[in-house]
Amino acid sequence: MTASAVACTVKSPVALQIGDVQSDTSRPGVYVIDVTFPQGQVVKIRDVSFKNYYTGFLTVRLQMKGSACQEGSVKWVTCLRNHRLMPNPHTEEGSQDYFSVYGHQMLVEPDNVTAVRLILRQPSSSWLNFTLEEIKIHQCVNDDSEREVPVWFSELTPVDQVPDLQGLPDPQAVASSIQQMWALTEVMQTSQTAVPIGRFDVDGCYDVNLLSYT
Amino acid sequence: MAEKRRSGVSMAEPKIAKADSEEEFLSQLGVAALLRGSLLKLVEARPEDPIGFLADHFANLASGSEAADCGDAEPSRTVQDRLSQALWNLNLAHHSQRSAFNNNVRVAYELLMTGGQHLCPGGGVRGRIYTELLRSLCTEAGLSSSTSAPLLRRIQCQDHEAVPFELFRQGVLICTVFADYVRKSQSLYLAVCGGSEVPAQRALCQAALGALRDALDTTQCADTARYLEASAKIAPCTLAQAMVSAQSSYEAQAGASMDPEEFEKEAVALFTARIQPVS
Q: Where does it sit, as one GO cellular component term (chain A) (predicted)?
């Protein structure tokens, strides 16, 4: 199954903090990143991949389109709760690693997803800033049609069973000669230029206007 | 002691003077360049008979300088000389040694163009000389005139036409490749015979030629795919299968055989069908 990154819009992180954003001097500890799909596209997610930047914990919520009879019903479901990205939030380990969160790791099967919300938490005050970068969402693509394999492809490896060669010429010798003849013909064909000798060119003396005067 | 020293110095001087005059003498003649050129040609051509090769090389140089000295000699004789010299140059390198071969073609072209400029206003080798050269190439390579006739019909030029360099090079390359091709087809016939004196079975010959035709007719797609596909068609196992099925066919049971001339003619037809005629 091939996965392809779905085009999505990643909104800039929104800080959640108590108090006024401008006046409060303390740095926020929670960011929320929303990822939406264009034109209300519904996606079956295979995995969400991203590059960490000093985020300690990640919670993922999915907005799922209700498959029930109620049309247009969407609900938010938590599929990953407090997933630890950094073993020790105060230290560097895992701070700039690449992560992938797969569908089977999630609490809910990520079918019919219309939006993804990533909630980032960093309890440590050591870091000035934290976020997730290069967020990509890959969807499952079912490749039903096999790519067309040419007929000769299966003939590239020699057949195991050797046919009965009684009284027949040696195929190696015959093949070798034929291959060299083929190569020589190819050399001739590739060296052909389109340079004309101008045999059928006339230098303008058969111009229609002039002909009418002769 | 002073006398001895003086005599020593005076003895040394004549020796130095003599050596100078020898060096001067050699450099005046330009022998260094001459020898260097001949050695380079020798290394490029690697002939079986190096002395004969060097003799030919110096003879060509001599006739070239003679022609320059005596101005315009009889045109026909000089043309014949130039033709044989051009042929000699072209036989120096095999067509697979691409850069050496191209150099030799350029030299031959220059040779055949000189003196013909007043005859050929378009610039280039005269058609008659070009056709003559191609015919000589084929006969020198050991091909009979009947074998090379269909090839020459396609690539020869009219007497009055002016052959540009690209066309000249292409024609010469085709002739040399054709000579190799005919030799290979003869060895293919021997291989199909299986080394026996009896002429090869018609069905087997047809199978071999059919495989070659298939490989050459591979559709024009990307180069690598085309080569892979063609090579799969002429792999030993594929050919073994083809020959086994050919042998069990009706023609083989009828005992028909193909003689070498017919085989060669069919192989040549395969080759010449793919040559673009000159226009």
A: nucleoplasm
